[in-house]
Design goal:
This protein is mainly α and about 475 residues long. The protein is built from 20 helices and six strands. Strand 3, helix 9 (about 220-230) and strand 4 form a beta-alpha-beta unit. It binds arginine.
Amino acid sequence: MATIPNNSEPVENANTTWSGRFEEPVSELVQRYTASINFDQRLAEYDIQGSLAHARMLAAGSIIGADDLAAIEAGLGQILNEVRRGQFVWKLELEDVHLNIEKRLTTLIGDAGKRLHTARSRNDQVATDVRLYLRAAIDSIIDLIHALQRALLDLAEAHVDTVMPGFTHLQVAQPVVFGHHIMAYFEMLKRDVQRMSDCRKRVNKLPLGAAALAGTSYPINREMVARQLGFDGVCENSLDAVSDRDFAIEFCAAAALVMTHLSRLSEELILWMSPSFGFIELADRFCTGSSIMPQKKNPDVPELVRGKSGRVNGHLVALLTLMKAQPLAYNKDNQEDKEPLFDTVDTLLDTLRIYAELMTGIRVNREAMREAAMRGYATATDLADYLTKKGMPFREAHEAVAQAVRFANKSGRDLSALTLAELRQFSSLIDGDIFAVLTLEGSVNSRDHVGGTAPAQVSAAIANARTWLA
Ligand code: ARG
């Protein structure tokens, strides 16, 4: 966003909004310190929408004349065009987006422009703008999470029977299929969508009408304004309406969880593509090389996603801290809500966009996954379960298998590579049918219940997920 130099053309009577009360102009340093125009200009379209709805309500209630409304509509229409074309000249001296637009309107249409602010304050105006902005942002975020989920489903579908080691403590634990692993992220993102949708309900309430803090003495019709702006209802307490930003905090918390999920996925992608794992390759367009080590292909994008989760968490803490000691009602502190909020939205949108695409370019090395599962005695639990099903108490079976693993490890073999005679040293309950149990396929196929890793269950989970997305 362009920053506005302090030497921009001075505005005549820059502080007319309140200057009658003041004996000297605001100092230049204070002007720069208190201005928000460098960042809140991105609310311009929402500010105009809110003003149009407000003006129509004022005219419907005969608080302003029909001629005033017509002039306001024409003027705001022109301003909207100027903003969209990048021709609007933002002035630091006019502090924020609201005063910049109001001043321009007055320049364009005269007295009618001065009537727009009847029964309104910047306090309820800014709260309305931020809510309109955030509502649109949430809708875009949900769309992009869906796009990422679709990409995950395609990847999972291609790998419902690709066996890999499942890990606990980053140690090989039990075999799973790669599609199952990917579907775990689908579930996380599904909850993220639900959290975003739920947050949207609380974002989608109208503050306008609260005015500065106490409401207004004009015969306003808040429901009419709410309807025009697509709000589900009005904020029910004027003090609360202008002062709380819990809806933004809640959004940032939901955003932090999205980023946390994507950060975990990033960490896994980074591990999986390291030559020590060699499970996947990312498409070249998502990687970078090293200026000194020619062999390197670095996972910069996942690393940045992991890193950016830190900044989004930081924004959440910033907003919580911003809010915690504010007395009712509006305080200028709240102007500080915007940069963290905007950056959270930007970071999420970019991250989701890039990940939806990155997922489609993942190449999976099935052999490497399979070998890793073989190396780690991933079917040891299956052997214990086999013994237990034949009557041995589970704790004893656990010990017998531990001995068998130790034995196999000495000769560097997998359990399935031991002979029947070797296996029977550990229990005479073991028969020839054990080999079906000790294979990776036998292991994953046996986990055949809702939520399990059997390929049939993973396919069913993918089908359910597609229905949920549709
Ligand atoms: N720029 C201000 C903000 O972002 C607008 C509201 C200003 N209200 C006031 N009473 N100073 O919060």
